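haha ok so turns out i had the wrong file open the whole time. this is the CORRECT one, sorry everyone. sequence first:
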Amino acid sequence: MIDEWVEVSPGNIQKFNCIEWVHYSYPNLSGNFVVGLASQTWEGRTTIWAATMNADTPGETRGLSYTRD
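then structure:
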């Protein structure tokens, strides 16, 4: 989460709590079309799983990708 200050109207600035997203794609994922996401917590560690299908980039496959960071 990050704090983002946005001018919603002239002179009216508000703070929003936002999620800072990072875009991942092939080859960091097995495929560029994500059809499912899941979060798993085990022994105090969190793993994010992504079920993917191949889209249009050569080399993509149907598969399961994960990250622990």
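The chain is about 0% helix and 55% strand.
again sry for the mixup
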